[in-house]
Design goal:
The chain has helices spanning 21-25, 32-42, 61-76, 99-105, 133-141, 146-153, 166-173, 198-208, 210-224, 228-232, 236-259; strands at residues 2-5, 12-15, 79-85, 92-98, 113-114, 120-122, 126-128, 178-184, 191-197. It has 260 residues and is α+β, with helices and mostly antiparallel strands. The strands form 4 sheets. Strands 5-6-7 form a 3-stranded antiparallel sheet, with no helix packed on it. Helix 3 (61-76) runs parallel beside helix 8, helix 5 (133-141) crosses helix 6 and helix 9 crosses helix 11 (236-259).
Length: 260
């Protein structure tokens, strides 16, 4: 899979290997650091690639966020659906939206001038850069001051007067797929909001399909006698292909027994 970075250390491509069960099983949670680890596990060292394995933390958060959304599109499709209970009338209702449409609608709302080595110049002469995974790690170490720590790292040294503006400016320049969506209860019309973070949602979806993945591994091992290690290193689409073929063979055998 090729993904084109829009921001530093791009613009330019990075290359990702096919998702395997081994990589999925290593996903421990839904935090930004789990996303960084996943991208590092998928990164390939290819000519022209702007990032190599071990460098995922250099990606701008906005680029990584969209990459995780694209991974969800590739693995699970574009429909995002769920259920909730209305707090006003206690009716249970469903909601859904299209992730592809959401990505297409997210556009920068602020123009900037691109400078050297990832620095940007916003209106008013504010010089800054977009936060990346390394900044998030530093922010996590800062505890309650995480936002301030990240903002300071995204400004030239000593220029602290714009700390309070950095998060807003960065979101306007490179919007995240991290939104509050609005819906209504179809029974009583009450308004509801739903927080949606594409990165966390994709990681959660990968973790949610582990039971099916382990069933696939067991089925292939039982049929072919392959080792666990050999099966978990299969690309996901190859693994599903073997499972589908085994199921077709089983169904054919059942039909033969019925007819015989």
């Amino acid at each position: 899979m090729r993904y084109d970075l829009l921001h530093f250390p791009g613009p330019g491509p990075l290359y990702l290997r096919d998702l395997t069960a081994r990589v999925e099983l290593a996903v421990e949670g839904t935090s930004p650091f789990d996303a960084i680890a996943l991208v590092d596990a998928l990164l390939m060292d290819r000519p022209g690639g702007v990032l190599r394995p071990g460098e995922a933390a250099r990606m701008a958060v906005a680029d990584r966020d969209r990459l995780m959304a694209q991974l969800h599109l590739a693995e699970f499709g574009s429909r995002i659906a769920g259920d909730r209970t209305c707090a006003a009338c206690e009716a249970r209702f469903s909601f859904d939206f299209d992730l592809g449409d959401l990505l297409g609608a997210l556009k920068p709302s602020r123009d900037v001038e691109r400078l050297e080595e990832g620095w940007l110049m916003a209106e008013g002469g504010i010089r800054f850069r977009l936060p990346n995974g390394e900044d998030e790690r530093a922010g996590a170490a800062g505890g309650p001051r995480a936002g301030e720590v990240i903002a300071l790292r995204c400004l030239p040294e000593g220029e602290t007067e714009h700390v309070a503006k950095i998060a807003e400016i960065a979101e306007a320049v490179a919007p995240l797929v991290d939104l509050t969506l609005r819906t209504q209860c179809p029974e009583c019309g009450a308004d509801h909001t739903m927080a949606f973070n594409a990165e966390a949602y994709c990681l959660g979806a990968l973790r949610a399909r582990r039971a099916r993945m382990m069933s696939d591994i067991h089925l292939i091992a039982s049929r072919y006698g392959w080792s666990f290690g050999a099966i978990v290193d299969l690309p996901q689409n190859h693994r599903r292909g073997f499972v589908d073929q085994i199921n077709r063979d089983r169904e054919a055998a059942r039909r033969t027994r019925r007819l015989g």
